[in-house]
Amino acid sequence: xxxxxxxxxxxxxxxxxxxxxxxxxxxxxxxxxxxxxxxxxxxxxxxxxxxxxxxxxxxxxxxxxxxxxxxxxxxxxxxxxxxxxxxxxxxxxxxxxxxxxxxxxxxxxxxxxxxxxxxxxxxxxxxxxxxxxxxxxxxxxxxxxxxxxxxxxxxxxxxxxxxxxxxxxxxxxxxxxxxxxxxxxxxxxxxxxxxxxxxxxxxxxxxxxxxxxxxxxxxxxxxxxxxxxxxxxxxxxxxxx
Length: 241
Known about the structure:
The chain has ten helices and nine strands.
């Protein structure tokens, strides 16, 4: 995981979509206890804040200090940490949620940390959302993702887009009933969101900005009003025995 890719905390906080309450209710329903939840790779705390009504204590951890500084004040507590070196006690967690971040981890080492820090009956949940679709502009964001941005995506990107199908733990799997993130956005909202994508960060470093070429096309097609934006929501989850 390359920390400078994530030094855009204020943009993440402003433009990344939040998750539906139903997701956090489902996570709480799966967990045997509700004392402490860890949101790992938390960024600016979108999922951390969603967990607050369901757990007595929520800790958000991320490698990027700048991301954590952008998190609004709430009941969550934040710390800088790597996924495979958690400064937490053995059997201290009822839930570990990882939203849009598992592909950046040293996965084998992280799974060992999950084994160490989760209590029996605790849940590990890998949360992801796929490439969004815009009502009336179907395929437009996918084409930008797969076309001009293709050379700039890290290899790990394919894992999160697919919903981590290869992730596996030696615990009982918990089938997620399915869901979606739906937001009504303007073209400016979408461009702000796209500007948080790691491929664009990589392109900017190389002196290129594919978003500059795409933005006028998107604005013209979008128009001045709101359009519904839909992300498929996926969860891979397991309960520790």
